[in-house]
């Protein structure tokens, strides 16, 4: 709940502009100077007719870099005989290779669809996979443009690799999100995990997208527009691309914006500093605008440790170092008190709460100290015995040498002893150095590559940015 509240307060600014508001703008705002990509999102659109034609014209007026879809590209049966009429007629100039009847295609592919249930009505969705040339197995795939990596899922129950949270497809997504090194990650699928429309929320597809690292989820299936915030990230239902329009039912928790008065599409602008999502009706009226920014104000999207810090936050390991605005203090040295919290949350899970402190273990950690219970639990688990016979030195920085010992003990257990050091890995860590075995084991396990130029910098205090990397690698945080 704290994670959701913090993220809702500090990473997103949203405005819902309904049709009865005065002086609505009639066109999308121009891209800002630092925008890297500009793309359109359409869903449930593939039914030839005036609504789809109007939506296509709207999209082309934006001159987007590419288009993604949330499924149901080819009504009603996904047939080969209708696919070019329903798609190529309106979007051939974005498709590569294009061999249909409506003109020339793109020189490189700029059209990235997802499968919907109507696309599956022809066995194996064969017309779809024949018509498009997509990455991977073509049913679900990933691609990267600018600062965003897109994960296009197949949410239909006929998907051979499954659609449950433990399916082959879900494991592929989890691995991809964990390995992603872009600033933003967007998941797209057809069936909405959360929706107030007549199809309702698809509980089978309520995977832990936020925990895995997704910044937004785009879906369709219900022919409405809706924005729902769940687990701190926006879930969009975008199904007004040209088929029919549905009514809303019972409103789901977290629903912040709803619209079903006209057809339309989404325009999304993504830079290193933010993503702006807009839903725009076919008459040019901007219905909803939602902005997602980096979690911490002092960790911009191009910060070297951004993705690692985002993992730490997404896993509930940290909520930052200050509020208003939310900050992480990436260059600040990690104190021994902070390290106790980081280690125990990483090893036991974000929900772990240690027992109440006694104040009797370390002379410099009274029971009233903010981290007393965490520090005493670290001692109880024999991960640390303090900085001296009686003290813990809670406000002292953790050096990179000390960090190696703490990380490996927390990971492998208090009784763990690393192999003898060779002294051949880092030029500033001789085999006789007190923590050499721990440091070399940290390297062997792929947790560190040193501080540069063949060095480890064992006496240097570890920063909070560095600690994010070490923790994520040590405990395989997604």
What does the secondary structure layout of this molecule look like, with pairings?
Blueprint: H1 2-10, E1 12-16, E2 37-42, H2 50-62, E3 66-69, H3 80-91, E4 111-112, H4 126-131, E5 141-145, E6 148-152, H5 168-179, E7 184-191, H6 209-212, E8 216-220, E9 225-230, E10 233-238, E11 255-259, E12 264-270, E13 275-281, E14 286-292, H7 306-314, H8 336-348, H9 372-380, H10 400-412, H11 436-444, H12 464-474
Parallel strand pairs: 2-3, 3-4, 6-7, 7-8, 8-10
Antiparallel strand pairs: 1-14, 2-12, 5-6, 9-10, 9-11, 12-13, 13-14
Helix pairs in contact: 7-12, 8-9, 10-11
Count of DSSP strands: 14
Gyration radius, rounded: 26 Å
The H-level CATH homologous superfamily of the largest domain, spelled out, is: Metallo-dependent phosphatases
Report the sheet with the most strands, covering strand number, pairing sense and barrel closure. 7 strands, mixed
Percent range of helical residues: 25-40%
Give the overall average pLDDT: 92
The 3D shape can be described as: elongated
Within the largest sheet, what's the order of strands? 1-14-13-12-2-3-4
CATH topology of the largest domain: Purple Acid Phosphatase, chain A, domain 2
Count of spatially separate domains: 2
Unreliable stretches covering 5 or more consecutive residues: 1-33
CATH architecture of the largest domain: 4-Layer Sandwich
The succession of helices and strands, N to C, reads HEEHEHEHEEHEHEEEEEEEHHHHHH
In CATH's first tier, which class of the largest domain applies?
Alpha Beta
Which strand-content bin applies to the residues? 15-25%
Q: Whole-Å distance between the termini? A: 19 Å
Number of helices, where a helix is a run of at least 4 consecutive DSSP H or I residues = 12
Class by alpha and beta content:
alpha/beta
